[in-house]
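Materials and Methods. Structural model of Control catabolite protein of gluconeogenesis. The 210-residue sequence of Control catabolite protein of gluconeogenesis from Brevibacillus laterosporus LMG 15441 was retrieved and submitted for structure prediction as follows.
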Amino acid sequence: MTKRQEQILQIVKDEGPITGENIAEHLNLTRATLRPDLSILTMSGYLDARPRVGYFYAGRPTSSVIAERLHKLIVNDYKAVPIVVAESASVYDAIVTLFLEDVGTLFVVNQKGLLAGVVSRKDLLRASLGNKGLESIPVSIIMTRMPNIVTCTPEETLLDTAQKLIEFQIDSLPVVRPNEEDPKTFELLGRITKTTISRAFVELGKETNV
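The predicted structure was written out as tokens:
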């Protein structure tokens, strides 16, 4: 919104309903000069116009309010505790953890507690087919390793993480930050899932001011 459009909105808020001619007089401009701004504000839903009455403030359009709120929802406020297994754990242990925790993705950490990989339900199912000795197969063999892991940071918006989940067709993202000792490795801070995104958007839709 331009400065002039903000001035128009304020004038209409204070004195509406008000004609276009009167708005132009307040700004020392011609009616023709203001016509494009008034059209934009009206089509955007900020103003409403009635013949022989003038312009009056209609309030901010719902789509604008929702878009603004979406860009303020950040990962740090919604991240959940990550469900992890050690890099040395067996595929059998990983399957048990997956079912006990009722999740679709496990994050694999090394001895220093740093993110080493990700293993999904599909990975574990694939590994279990035709293999009887799951206790002897380390999860590190089947996991996806860095740098092939899609991650997010605490400062990112939920909108950005939702886009990543859709784009890469995955169910969960690890929330990470670079390790101070080695920036190429990452500390695991949490997780963002499709359920997290859905819950946040449902909460947004229930807000009385939206």
